[in-house]
Specification:
By secondary structure, this protein is mainly β. It folds into three domains: about 25-150, Immunoglobulin-like (Sandwich); about 160-265, Immunoglobulin-like; about 275-430, Immunoglobulins (Immunoglobulin-like). Helices cover about 5% and strands about 45% of the residues. Strands 7, 8, 12, 14, 15, 17 and 18 form a seven-stranded mixed β-sheet that branches. Strands 2-10-9-4-5 form a five-stranded mixed β-sheet, with no helix packed on it. Strands 19, 20, 22, 24 and 29 form a five-stranded mixed β-sheet that branches. Strand 17 and strand 18 (about 260-265) form a beta hairpin. The protein is elongated and about 110 Å long. Residues about 10-25 have low confidence and may be disordered. One calcium ion binds near residues 42, 44, 46, 48 and 49.
Length: about 425
């Protein structure tokens, strides 16, 4: 019996809540309690009256637009057809209206005296008297609108313009081969911005951010800014996939005005180069020598195999495999100085005067290597056998001594796993 009483009481309460809900929204209006305060704003970022607060209550789900209309009839969109759910309420919790902060900034529009060639994404209303209109359309297509007035005074209307936006070159090959590995992005910013973002825009809207080069001028400060873009390789990132991308720069100022400029950039043969010396010799070693002991003035021969296990071709120079050095020579002897971005096989030994004095191409032209432009490359996924020889012309200060191999990416790095590969003891004998 007591249980039944309790159930009846609960049911009554539930009915009461539903009734309360209905009573609260017995008013058939879709939009209620609409206000914008204060009625005058001075959007200049000085912290005083910069922002007004717009409030409203929806009694049904609706799409909401907020528009400002100037004295000359010009309409400025702030929100357009945005879906919003009704403000839920019942007898126990009072309705909590929507609150929207309005800083005077509306969707971008052009003014007759504009010289800025890019897109104005968001812009402050110029000084003037405006009507604001909040309109809502429910799922049944019923539309209601409420309006009031707003004065804008002392608006700071200058835009943070991005002028002279250039990408040069417009096509590059970020793959660390020393050729066209960088592109340079440049603009002139006309006034202080809170932020400037520069990015490549991918086909699915993804953004590849490009960092500003640190110089005397601070990011966001008025003046000329430049960016040196290598596809992200120098921070260990793979470049975006090959293709043509919009390059976008967006500046935003402290009151929320935003502008955007766009250019284009093509990436070709992009990727992080990866190569190694592989252990493929019959004895399980990476480096095979013709002897462990050699008479003075006689010649040592070696064989090793290089593998390009990356996704981009690696560039090389000479001399060709099979070339023979005297032990007191180095690679300059054959006219092949170090070249930024080129890969070479090197041999080094304990008492050498410089790093890897004996160097060879990472394959043979027309056999392992393919020509791209004026240069020779070992294609992705390919292996090449490299041979070479060194004629021992004098007895080294240490004897026996170790000889080892390396795979050098000139002016970039010798990665740890490609350095001091497979050292062997060699004895040089005098007659
Ligand atoms: Ca102000
Ligand atoms: Ca390149």
């Amino acid at each position: 019996m007591r249980l039944l009483t309790a159930l009846i009481a609960l049911a009554a309460l539930a009915v009461g809540l539903v009734v309360a809900h209905q009573v609260l929204y017995a008013d058939p209006r879709l939009l209620r309690d609409v206000s914008l305060k204060p009625a005058t704003i001075t959007p200049n970022g000085d912290g005083k009256d910069d922002v007004a607060e717009l409030s409203y209550v929806l009694t049904r789900n609706a799409r909401v637009s907020i528009t400002f209309v100037g004295a000359d009839g010009t309409r400025y969109d702030f929100r357009h057809d945005q879906p919003r759910s009704l403000n839920r309420t019942n007898a126990l919790s009072p309705v909590e209206p929507y609150h929207v902060l309005f800083s005077g900034v509306v969707n971008g529009f052009r003014r007759p005296d504009d010289r800025f060639p890019g897109e104005v994404v968001a812009r402050v209303l110029p000084d003037g008297d405006y009507a604001w209109i909040v309109s809502a359309t429910d799922d049944a297509g019923v539309t209601e609108a409420v309006s009031g007035s707003l004065q804008v005074r002392e608006a700071d209307t200058a835009l943070p313009e991005l002028l002279d936006f250039t990408v040069s070159p417009e096509e590059f090959t970020p793959n660390q081969d020393g050729l066209d590995d960088h592109t340079f992005i440049n603009y002139y910013l006309t006034r202080q911005a809170e932020s400037v973002q520069v990015y490549l825009l991918g086909p699915n809207g993804e953004r590849y951010a490009i960092a500003e080069r640190q110089r005397g001028i601070a990011p966001g400060a008025p003046g000329r800014h430049d960016y040196d873009y290598d596809g992200g390789i120098n921070v260990g990132l793979s470049p975006p996939p090959d293709g043509t991308y919009p390059v976008v720069a967006e500046a935003q100022d402290r009151i929320g005005q935003r502008v955007r400029v766009t250019s284009r950039l093509t990436i070709r043969d992009g990727g992080i180069p990866r190569a190694q010396i592989v252990a493929t010799q019959p004895d399980g070693h990476a480096l095979q020598w013709s002897a462990t002991s050699v008479m003075i003035s006689h010649t040592l021969y070696f064989t090793l195999t290089v593998e390009n296990y990356g996704t981009v071709p690696i560039r090389t120079t000479g001399p060709a495999p099979g070339t023979c050095y005297d032990s007191d020579q180095n690679f300059n002897r054959f006219g092949f100085a170090e070249e930024s971005g080129a890969w070479r096989v090197g041999i080094d030994f304990d008492t050498s005067l410089r790093n890897y004095p004996f160097r060879w191409a990472v394959g043979t032209q027309g056999q392992d290597l393919v020509q791209i432009g004026r240069y020779w490359y070992l294609p992705a996924g390919r292996r090449a056998t490299v041979t070479g020889c060194i004629r021992l012309v004098d007895v080294p200060p240490r004897n026996p001594l170790q000889f080892w191999a390396g795979l050098i990416h000139e002016d970039v790095e010798i990665s740890d796993f490609n350095n001091r590969v497979d050292p062997h003891w060699i004895t040089v004998q005098e007659p």
